[in-house]
Amino acid sequence: MAATRILMVCMGNICRSPTAEAVLRAKLKAAGLARAVEVDSAGTHGHFHLGERPDARAIKHAAARGYDLGKLRARRVVEQDYVRFDWLIAMDENNLAHLRQAIPVGTTARLGLLMEHARRHVGVREVPDPYYGAPAGFDRVLDLVEDACDGLVETLRGANVEGTS
Question: What span, in angstroms and rounded, lies between the C-alpha atoms of 11 and 20?
Fold first, then answer.
């Protein structure tokens, strides 16, 4: 069985989407699904930070919870991502709209919002961008992303995605 492929998407690929990538990887590993699901991240406006590491604040706050963002590098969503990935999951409505505008004809990739998978933060539609805010914004991102990734792992299990760490 081919691996399920998921691309996490935000604007610059330096705060929210790399956080979501690292959190989902950790949750998949804990669930024994690490080999069954490939995870990556990218930005709709990735040219701003192309090749850069995630924001130092995102790295710091994620590390405090046991997630390693240090090896990730920003990149932009490209047309091939719509073929390579089964799911393109946006952090907010604006980035979801960008994904929808750029979708190639005939693409079978599923587009959606990460928070659609949340279990505790029901009713929260978006993961807010913490870039221009206070440090607490990075913890809020982690709270939301952890919840939604727990739900996404449940969704994947329900779709009979199987594998071992």
Answer: 13
* Given 40, 129, 147, 150, the catalytic residue: 129
Range of 76's domain? 4-158
One of 16, 25, 57, 75 is an active-site residue; which one?
A: 16
Q: What is the CATH number of the domain that holds 47?
A: 3.40.50.2300
Hey, which residues does 111 pair with through a beta bridge?
88
Active site residue 10: yes
Active site residue 129: yes
User: What's the mean per-residue pLDDT of the chain?
Assistant: 94
pLDDT band with cut points at 50, 70 and 90 for residue 89: very high
Across residues 72-83, what is the average pLDDT? 96
Per the structure, how many domains does the chain have? Answer: 1
